[in-house]
Amino acid sequence: MAHETSLRAAYESHFRVGAAVNAATVRTHADIVARHFNSVTPENEMKWERIHPSEGQYDFVSADQIVLFARDLGMFVRGHTLVWHNQTPAWVFLDDLGQPAPAKLVEARLEAHIAEVVGRYRGVVGCWDVVNEAVIDQGDGWLRPSRWRTALGDEYIEKAFRLAHQADPSALLFYNDYNETQPDKRDRILRLLEHLLDRGAPVHGVGLQMHVSLDDPPVEQMEAAIERYRALGLRLHITELDVSVYPWVHEPDRPQHPTRPYDEEVAEKLAARYEALFALFLRHADAIDNVTLWGVADDATWRDDFPVKGRKDWPLLFDVEHRPKEAFWRVIRLVRG
Ligand code: GLA
């Protein structure tokens, strides 16, 4: 019967199924999360600007709320994220005079941040996205220019992994990125991971964000990437899965892309896409431990504002009224056979 079906139970012997939640949705979407998911990722609440807004001032209120919610329900928590070029306050990189801070100071701040945040959730947060999106999308080179890289050089990534491992030796440590199946970027990410592993850095897994759309990228491309990543011997987490019903649009074209209706045709395409994706994950379930969706239901999704501001999207398995969509049933039927 519909009300007895549970996504996490259906996939229990394959991998955890997770959702990104926030301080609001752990209340407004608590029923769905409790029934269908056994892993949560704080959407923004553990990012530097939220949890450590000014030097030495930590704000754990919202992150704690999510962690306690998860603990009460016996859920896994994915910590997200320690080092990123976005949502990091400017003070981290500046001295008292507002000038670029010396490397020693930035490094001391990184150390303090990781010790405090990872230390607080030791034994409760099962894994961390230690470094998010450090690889460039295109062009020459491999690492993204960022304030982290300017301040600390390329080795900031390895440093962050070592610090996280010190702060919680039992947490699994991940490198997380987007466009991770696109062959050029995939190869750069692989190069970074190989470099870290060669140096003996404590990297345990790779997070594949998987913000995808109905037709793109093709499953074959995604599978080729999964095969390459798993061949490194790392664990795989699908960390931010959602399926936009719109094709990707580049920035200058965005204003010309209005909302389309969510009709049966779109619902069917979305269902077929989700079925193909979960079939792919099942084929690699011996390497994949966690499949997390970036949100719970279509009434609260970042896709409504990205890449086109104010354009309604329907990227998740539950609709705006929190009812399971056709895509949900296909994902369930797939595993039940
Ligand atoms: C990236 C980040 C996430 C989130 C999404 C958009 O993928 O890793 O934390 O910000 O963008 O919501």
Short note summarizing the structure:
The protein is 38% helix and 16% strand. The protein has 337 residues and is α/β, with parallel strands linked by helices.
Bound heterogens, unique? alpha-D-galactopyranose
CATH topology: TIM Barrel
Helix content, binned percent: 25-40%
If you compute it from the alpha carbons, what radius of gyration comes out, rounded to the nearest whole angstrom? 20 Å
Could you say which overall geometry the principal axes of the C-alpha atoms support? globular
CATH architecture: Alpha-Beta Barrel
Question: Could you state the order of secondary-structure elements as H and E?
Answer: HEHHEHHEHEHHEHEEHEHEH
How many DSSP helices?
Answer: 12
End-to-end gap: 16 Å
Largest sheet: 8 strands, parallel, barrel
- CATH H-level superfamily title: Glycosidases
The total domain count is: 1
Give the spatial strand order of the biggest sheet.
Answer: 1-2-3-4-5-6-8-9
- Detail the poorly predicted runs: none
The portion of residues forming beta strands comes to 15-25%
Number of strands: 9
Q: Provide mean pLDDT, rounded.
A: 96
Category from helices, strands and their pairing: alpha/beta
* CATH class descriptor: Alpha Beta
